[in-house]
Amino acid sequence: MAEYTWPSREATAVIGKEVDRLDGMAKATGAAKYTYDVNLKNQLIAVALGCPHAHCKITKLDVSAAEKTPGVVAVHIFEHAAVGREVEWEGELLAVVAAESEAAAKAGVAAIKLEYDELPVFVDDEDLAAAEKAGRTGKGGGKTELEREPGDDDDEDEFVEKEIARLLKESKYVVEGYYGIDAITHCCLEPHGSTVEWKDGKLLAYLSTQNVSGTDEGFANDLGITSSDVEVKCDYIGGGFGSKFAPDYWGVAAAKISKETGRPIKFLLSRDQELKIAGNRPSGYINVKIGADENGVLTVWDSVHWGTAGYKGGGVSQTVMPYVIRPKNYRRIATTVATNTAQSRAWRAPNHPQACAMSQTAIDDMAAKMGANSYDVFAANLRAGNVDSQHPDAANVYLAEMERCAELIDWKANWHPHGKGKAKGSIVDGLGMALHTWGGTANNSDCRLKVSPDGSVEAFCGSQDLGTGTRTVIAQVLAETFGLGIDQVRVNIGSSKYPASGASGGSTTVGGVCESHRRAGLDALDKLFELAAKELGVDAASLEAVGGKIRVKGSDKSIAWKKACTLLGMKPLEINASYKRGDVSTLSSSGVCGVQMAHVEVDKETGVIKVKKFVAVQDQGLVINPKTCKSQIYGAMIMGIAAALYERRITDPKSGAFVNAELADYKLARLGDIGELVVDLYEPESERQRGVIGNGEPPAISPKAAIANAVANALGVRVPVVPLTPKRVLDALAKA
Amino acid sequence: MSGKRVVTLTINGDQTEVLCEPRQTLLEVLRNNLDFTGTKEGCSNGNCGACTVLMDGRPVVSCLVLAVEAEGAELRTIEGVACGSHLDEVQSAFLEGAALQCGICTPGFIVQTEALLAENPNPSEDDIRFYLAGNLCRCTGYDKIVRAVQAAAEKRQVARSV
Fold it and tell me: Which of A327, A328, A291 is nearest to A174 (CA)?
């Protein structure tokens, strides 16, 4: 059996090299077909009626006029919209109309007669007292860690109170703060949805999904068929960010209507529905008190945080608090808040961005209180062992990355104590930083590899490419393994009929597909080496595949790749490989750090913030393709700028209406908003040796805290809740 | 159906007749009637730029243009940017500069860039950021898009000077 390892840095020809995306040509020419580009012959278009109120009881839902609307073929009422049922958030789909055209479907929706009783609405997730008064809070768990243990006679609760009070009293510095981060939505540019058709009792679903191999079962379970009767296809997806793992009830409805009518159905959410119901990230707000010694090393942390993940409550998990910088003594308590908003979905690095924004702002305020350099306070805590990270050598890696990041943003030259910089008119500037961590364990991944006697190489895998470069990475791994060029490898992904591969969530894809394809490649190479060894009259162990040849290491004796493949005879060599999440391997691992630093300018008269320069230093083990790897980081930084400065779900407190659920009002960063961005991949040999680790999530974590800290450094005043809108900046200045 | 109109227009050099309803947007007709699905739909209210096409050389968001308004117009969509299998400078720069990720915004950005470079062959970075500010990328590749537009402009300038 082959030994599954990566070649050394010096020996690689394709891995670690900047390779253009394989699907770039299709995307740049408009040839790439996304789910919403799929138009099937004789298809119907489906449009849904969303609930107009955030909390109501349905008293009448009459679709008879809709059914008679010209062009309408079928109307489907969702079970949760039956008369007498309560709907708990605005936008929840109530009924769907399938028609010959979009216009006819919309006319059908307009003809639906809906009546409902309005019920009390609660959406003010930031106001904990109001939530408690409205009976909307719940226990979110908590944990207390104290170095001293209670004596036999002490009541545990009483001991905790006394010990935290003692630690705070004995601290050289104490900071008490309030911080927060509003809910945002996924806002995928291609909305959730599918185009489906039935053929011979089997369902073909073109689904916009991050989970090609897992959604066939989702359809099957709800339709009473087996997953082998379903094929899910997704060649291209216009954004997911954690929100597209399931067929969703509207996908299942499309399949049902298609079966009833005998015609293909195209059913994608409208823009406002996409924002209202198809994914949002929980909010988080915190009251915290921290103590530190003369160097800013935290001695104690005591916090209560709350937030909402929707109508079921939820919020930011207490397990991630305090984030990365964690003292030995801490108490963290979480409270959930139930609001009349759609339930959240996973959003790049669930819990971490909020935890980072609620924790590391307090660390920075500690530096401000001390009159110290924030860099020094973060570093002092790392050196003191106040660190909670998934990287096994976290403190050293953070410190090395901080040093690099500081060089790139010229921290020393640009630093000034909080609020003490030189103003240019009404403009002040400031620096801020934040640290993050993530796992990125390789996901389950199976693949089938075919090496044909004509020398062609083709791989099949039920993974998906979210724009992250999955196809390209697979091709690089196989090309490297066989000593071929990228163009000599064909990669097939995007169908649930291919060997199953895990969902793309949690930065698990690159590790998974690298595991399966490197294993398959090395297994195939073993077989080819056996054949080539006989042909060359050498030991198979002496062979290597490089430069389009299989050759004897250290000699000119070789056989061309194509000729070696003819030794397979008439039949192609087919290899199936499988990697199970958690299998110990040298090809992949998990646990990363990451540091980001921001340099901002703030106009004290207008409250407008501009990011001047933003630097990310990121480790992710062995980098297969620096080009696509950096793309992920750039993208995460810009998403972070949007969430730090612009982006939030705004709800009307009286009606619960999501008032900015369209792109004119849901403010995102544009080209002019981002400033200078610098990305640096931290890949010393010690990191490279750890194998591949996903990096989709980690760089999306720190931006909010880093930018908020930079603004606090510029102003000398904390703007407590992100996004840091001009009004919030001006309010904070007025209050100071 | 009564009320339908025949619109005659030229798309990527080919004269085309299409039967459409007066209420249909140019975007809807391109995507649904004519299967030019390279032009993307993001917001349907002119705020994301994904549906940008060139109409008589000017960039328009096709979700805000009625198809009947395109009578007699010369349209250029993303499908008409490349010359056969040869990408033009803008497309190559986006591909080589990794200025595309999920790619759903890419056609709009490329078409808008074509309009920019036709109008201003040597744009400054500020010109680029201003001209492309109507295009939204969620993934987001803005930084690399700016670099790609700069690279395309330079490549085109060099090609013209030879």
Answer: A291
Inter-chain contact A671–B133, Cβ cutoff 8 Å?
Answer: yes
Mark yes or no for CB contact A103/B95 under 8 Å: no
pLDDT score for B3: 86
Q: What is the DSSP letter of A227?
A: G
Q: What is the mean pLDDT of chain A?
A: 97
On whether both B46 and B109 belong to a single domain, the answer is: no
The total number of structural domains that make up chain A: 3
Which residue among B24, B28, B102 sits closest to A239, beta carbon to beta carbon? B102
Q: Which residue in the set A27, A238, A662 is minimally distant from B43, CB to CB?
A: A662
Statement to judge: residues A457 and A430 lie in one domain: no
Residues 465-524 of A with CB under 8 A from B: 466-468
| Residues B96 and B63 occupy one common structural domain | no
* Average pLDDT score over residue span A372-391: 98
Chain A residue at shortest CA distance from B31: A37
Chain B contact for A663 (CB, 8 A cutoff): yes
Neighbouring C-alpha atoms within 13 Å toward the C-beta of A270: 19
pLDDT single digits (tens) A579-628: 999 999 999 999 999 999 999 999 999 999 999 999 999 999 999 999 99
Average pLDDT over residues A343-354: 97
Question: In chain A, what percentage of residues exceed pLDDT 90?
Answer: 98
Both A707 and A599 in a single domain?
A: yes
Within the 227-246 window of chain A, which residues sit less than 8 Å (CB to CB) from chain B? 236-239, 241
**Same domain assignment for residues A16 and A69:** no
β-bridge mates for residue A195, sequence order? A206, A266
Residue A645's pLDDT is what?
98
β partners of residue B25 = B66
Residue that is last in its domain, among A557, A579, A601: A579
What confidence tens digit (pLDDT) does each residue in A527-547 have?
A: 999 999 999 999 999 999 999
Write down the pLDDT at residue B140. 81
Q: So what's the pLDDT on residue A442?
A: 97
User: How many Cα atoms are found within 13 Å in the side-chain-facing hemisphere of A444?
Assistant: 11
Q: Flag whether pLDDT at B1 surpasses 80.
A: no
Asked if A633 and A639 count as a contact pair (C-beta separation under 8 A), the reply is no
Q: What are the distances in angstroms from CA A328 to CA A63, A320, A322, B65?
A: 61, 14, 11, 62
- Contact list, A28 vs chain B (CB under 8 Å): 82, 87, 91-92, 94-95, 100, 103, 106, 110
The answer to whether the CB atoms of A663 and B136 lie below 8 A apart is yes
Q: Do A28 and B136 touch (CB under 8 A)?
A: no
Task: Indicate yes or no: CB of A36 within 8 angstroms of CB of B41.
Answer: yes
ipTM summary value? 0.97
Query: What's the whole-number mean pLDDT along residues B5-10?
Result: 97
Each residue's pLDDT tens digit, A70-85 = 999 999 999 999 999 9
Quick check: B100 and A239 CB within 8 A?
no
Contact residues, chain B, for A27 at CB < 8 Å:
100, 103, 106
The answer for residues whose C-beta is within 8 angstroms of residue B86's C-beta and 6 or more apart is: none
Q: How many CB atoms lie within 10 A of CB A610?
A: 16
B-chain CB neighbours of A33 within 8 Å are 37
Q: Specify the DSSP element, H or E, that contains A372.
A: none
Q: Residue A687 domain-assigned?
A: yes
